[in-house]
Design brief:
The protein has one domain. It contains 7 helices and 3 strands, in the order αααββααααβ. The protein is mostly helical. 10% of the residues are buried. The N and C termini lie far apart (51 Å).
Length: 204
């Protein structure tokens, strides 16, 4: 079982350095630009690291990070707006919590890839994978079929609203099989529940 080590200042700096300063701030009114300035103070950075470590060690995600804002934006040039699909919802998270989430996600992805837990053809949302890798994989599959005298067809589909219907028990079982410590699974049990969303209407 992989031991969950404490978060490091270097890893946190690496994650936030890639964040886009122009993105909208969250309910805490902070942007990535603000956080990049804040973590330049070593005391502030240390406090953020301590919060992240405490969340994992205690198996608890702070209620403050569970408060979300959803901005409802009408899609332009529609004849009517009497259906939900005529609107584009954007969910904004508290930036500090979002930063910690990014660091946790990076750590988990490293662990599952190290333990060969991800299917070899899984390319989306993985580090060191790209559209080029997907193209090469698809080309290989097609040409392999041609070599055997077969015709290859491609079916593409998108799974919408996956996260809201995620089976929590299945996720906990999966995290355990990945090789993560029980305290990590306990953290996600708390992370997934009691989120609160404040809806904001945006008239364009």
């Amino acid at each position: 079982m992989a031991q969950w080590t404490s978060f490091s200042k270097e890893k946190l700096k690496q994650v936030i350095a890639k964040c886009n300063d122009s993105l909208a701030p969250g309910p805490d009114k902070l942007s990535w630009w603000h956080l990049k300035i804040i973590i330049k103070q070593d005391e502030c950075l240390t406090n953020i690291i301590n919060i992240a470590n405490a969340c994992i060690n205690l198996g608890h995600w702070l209620d403050y990070f569970k408060h979300l804002s959803m901005i409802i934006i009408p899609k332009p040039n529609k004849l009517s707006y009497d259906h939900a699909k005529m609107f584009h919802p954007i969910v904004l998270l508290n930036m500090l919590g979002k930063l910690i989430e990014k660091v946790i996600a990076k750590r988990i992805q490293f662990t599952v890839m190290k333990n060969n837990f991800i299917y070899s053809c899984q390319l989306g949302r993985l580090k060191f994978k790209s559209t080029t890798d997907a193209g090469v994989t698809l080309t290989y599959i097609v040409r392999s079929g041609w070599a055997k005298g077969k015709t290859t067809s491609t079916l593409v589909f998108d799974i919408s609203q996956f996260f809201p219907f995620l089976n929590h028990n299945l996720l906990m079982t999966t995290l355990s099989k990945v090789g993560l410590e029980p305290k990590v699974s306990k953290f996600f049990v708390d992370y997934l529940v009691k989120k609160k969303t404040n809806y904001v209407w945006n008239n364009l």
